[in-house]
């Protein structure tokens, strides 16, 4: 069992280099009704719009001009530039204690808009794929053509085609979250596809079809479809439903789940819940003639509070069981994330986890990592 703990923690730490930046869903309901209230992309993450830049400045302790390179690099009105740099280091227990330090992200973004039509490109390094190093040391994680029904607003119909990650669930920024890592949107699962998305103050819907990446060997070389819908029953409460189907040469996976968000304005506290059921049909192959159909469950419950205008605390629990029929496979954790938004460009975050396998029938694993994030 110690080997399972070691594998879980090492994969979490090493998998962080590099990683993608996502939106903070902690801001939805507590600060805005939609991710597009601050971001250009309909899924959130990446480049900020005008309101997002103002939010970055107002929620930081020391302010500073929020624009790309503090507004010192001029660009035409149709072009938006940006980027993210991240690195982390700290303590890992596997169960033997050890120190660790690693890069996480070095991405550049560009968004060129011409009326309702725009092009989005993300460019940066990644861990190389064995046998295809020339194409994978440096890559474009996302690049897509997008149509926006209302280019001067943050709501309406969006249509995307290109390379991006399907929209499913709460889209936590922290990729080790169980619902990210085991819920179908782990690192390097961006692939080619097309999406139809509709976003409104009261609801949003995302439907995506995708195919295996013909160039890069992804974590999952899958074809399939994903759908996510969220209904905001009030300004402080929402519910959602998700579904995803993935087909590979080795298996088929079906994800089905629910989400919910509840914001308590008095204590300024946001609760977020996501639970998924995963049915995996393992295909019969020469190396696995019996196949199989394990059924699993994965979930996260996170409470978030802005301690000050520039200090965000997340405390959450996670549960993952890859096969409900086998005892002591379940994995449980307590997460703590403390974000200090020092300036409109600089964030320092403490990411900590305590993890058990088999409801404590093993030695625990843990990490406490200090992360630096600089937004260009």
Question: Which features would summarize this protein structure in a list?
Answer:
mainly beta, 8% helix, 4 helices, disordered N terminus, 16-stranded antiparallel beta barrel, 376 residues, globular
Brief digest:
Helix content is 8%, strand content 50%. It has helices spanning 2-14, 50-58, 133-136, 178-181, and strands at 79-93, 97-114, 117-125, 138-148, 156-164, 191-199, 203-210, 223-234, 237-247, 251-264, 269-282, 295-308, 311-321, 331-341, 346-357, 365-375. The radius of gyration is 20 Å and the shape is globular.
* Count of helical regions: 4
Q: How does the overall form come out from the CA principal axes?
A: globular
Quaternary structure classification:
single chain
In terms of structural class, how would the helical and strand content be classed?
mainly beta
Percent of residues in helices comes to under 10%
* Sheet of most strands: 16 strands, antiparallel, barrel
Topology:
Layout: H1 2-14, H2 50-58, E1 79-93, E2 97-114, E3 117-125, H3 133-136, E4 138-148, E5 156-164, H4 178-181, E6 191-199, E7 203-210, E8 223-234, E9 237-247, E10 251-264, E11 269-282, E12 295-308, E13 311-321, E14 331-341, E15 346-357, E16 365-375
Antiparallel strand pairs: 1-2, 1-16, 2-3, 3-4, 4-5, 5-6, 6-7, 7-8, 8-9, 9-10, 10-11, 11-12, 12-13, 13-14, 14-15, 15-16
């Amino acid at each position: 069992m110690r080997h399972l703990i070691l594998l879980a923690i090492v994969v979490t730490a090493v998998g962080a280099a590099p990683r993608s930046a996502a939106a903070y869903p902690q801001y939805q309901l507590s600060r805005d009704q939609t991710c597009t209230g601050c971001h250009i992309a309909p899924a959130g993450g990446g480049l900020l719009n005008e309101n997002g830049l103002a939010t970055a400045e107002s929620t930081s302790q020391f302010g500073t001009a929020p624009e790309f390179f503090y507004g010192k690099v001029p660009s035409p009105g149709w072009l938006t530039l940006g980027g993210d740099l991240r690195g982390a280091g700290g303590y890992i227990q596997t169960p033997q204690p050890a120190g660790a330090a690693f890069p996480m992200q070095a991405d550049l973004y560009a968004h060129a808009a011409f009326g309702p039509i725009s092009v989005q490109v993300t460019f940066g390094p990644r861990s190389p794929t064995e046998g295809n190093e020339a194409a994978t040391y440096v890559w474009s994680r996302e690049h897509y053509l997008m149509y926006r029904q209302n280019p001067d607003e943050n709501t309406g119909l969006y249509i995307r085609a290109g390379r991006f990650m399907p929209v499913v669930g709460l889209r936590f920024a922290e990729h080790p979250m169980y619902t990210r890592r085991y819920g179908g949107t782990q690192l390097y699962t961006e692939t080619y596809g097309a999406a139809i998305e509709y976003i409104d103050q009261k609801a949003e819907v995302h439907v995506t079809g995708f195919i295996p990446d013909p160039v890069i060997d992804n974590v999952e070389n899958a074809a399939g479809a994903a759908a996510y819908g969220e209904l905001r029953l009030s300004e402080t409460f929402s519910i959602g439903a998700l579904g995803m189907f993935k087909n590979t040469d080795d298996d088929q996976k079906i994800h089905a789940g629910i989400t919910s968000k509840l914001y308590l304005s008095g204590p300024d506290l946001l609760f977020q819940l996501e639970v998924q059921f995963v049915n995996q049909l393992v295909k019969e192959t020469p190396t696995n003639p019996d196949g199989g159909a394990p059924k699993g469950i994965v979930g996260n419950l996170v409470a978030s509070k802005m301690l000050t205008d520039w200090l965000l605390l997340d405390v959450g629990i996670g549960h993952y069981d890859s096969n409900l029929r086998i005892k002591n496979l379940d994995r449980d954790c307590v997460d703590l994330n403390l974000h200090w938004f020092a300036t409109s460009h600089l964030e320092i975050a403490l990411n900590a986890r305590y993890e058990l396998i088999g409801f404590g029938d093993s030695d625990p694993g843990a990490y406490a990592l200090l992360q630096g994030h600089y937004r260009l």
